[in-house]
Amino acid sequence: MRSFAALLLLSLAGLGPAVGADLPLPPSPRFDAEPPYAHWGGIYLGLNGGFSLGSSQWIQGQNATSVFNTDGFLLGGTVGFNYPVSAVLFGVEADADWSTLNGSAGNCAVNGTGAVAACETKNSVLGTFRARMGYAFDRTLIYVTGGAAFGDLRTGLNPPATFNSTTKVGWAAGTGVEYALTDAWSAKAEYLFVDLGSASCTGAANCGGAAGASVSLTENLMRGGFNYRFSW
C-alpha cells in the first residue's frame, strides 16, 4: 500500500511541469501609445453663449451717478490653438459675441429740452483675444486665461434715446474647465471679468446731449460652449 501511494505521488510530480506548460499565460496589460492629454493639441473652432452681469457709472464734471447694474445675454463664436507640453497646455483663444447688455441710472441728467432723463449704457458687441494655460487630467482640462478685450460701448440719455457709439479696448481675465466628450468635441464652462475702461462724450450731440460725460463699464461673463478640435 505504501509503495502504491509513493508511486502515485511520483507520477503526479512528473506531470506537474507538463500540465503547467500547457496552461495559457494571462494577457499582458495594454498601454496607450500616447497619453490622453496629447488629444488636446491643435486648432479648434466653437460656439459660446451665456449671461453677463456688469456695472457702469457716468461722471460729468463734479456730478456722478451711483454705480448701476447692467445685464444681458451673449452669443458668438470662438477660435483657438492648443499646444501641449506633457500635461500642461499653452494656447491662444479669440472670440466675438453679440451682446444685449444694458442698464441705466434714472433721473441722472437733464437733456437738451430740459426734461429729466436716464443715463443709459449698452454693449452690443464684445470680443476678447487671450492667452490660455491649463492642466489636463485625462479628459478634463482646467485653465486660466487673460488678455485684451474690445467692445462697442453705447451711451446716451433716454429720452431722447440717441446713443453715442465708441469702440473701447480693455482687458479680460478668468478661469474655466473643459471636458473632452470625444477625441474632437469638447464642452466648456468659464468665467471672465472684462474691463472696457471709460468712453468720453466729446460733442454736444454725443450721449444724447451729455457732452463731457465719462462713462465706464465692467462685466462679469458666465459662458458655456462647445469646441471642435482639428487634432494634429
Describe it.
The protein has 232 residues and is mainly β. It has one domain: Porin, CATH 2.40.160.20. Helix content is 9%, strand content 67%. It contains one helix and nine strands; from the N terminus they run H-E-E-E-E-E-E-E-E-E. Strands 1-3-4-5-6-7-8-9 form an eight-stranded antiparallel barrel. A hairpin with a 2-residue loop joins strand 1 (42-60) and strand 2. The N and C termini lie far apart (76 Å). The mean pLDDT is 84.
**What is the CA–CA distance across the termini?**
76 Å
Overall shape? elongated
Give the C-level CATH assignment. Mainly Beta
Structural class: mainly beta
Percentage of residues assigned to helices: under 10%
Strand order of the largest sheet: 1-3-4-5-6-7-8-9
What is the compact description of this entry?
The chain has 232 residues and is mainly beta. 9% of the residues lie in helices and 67% in strands.
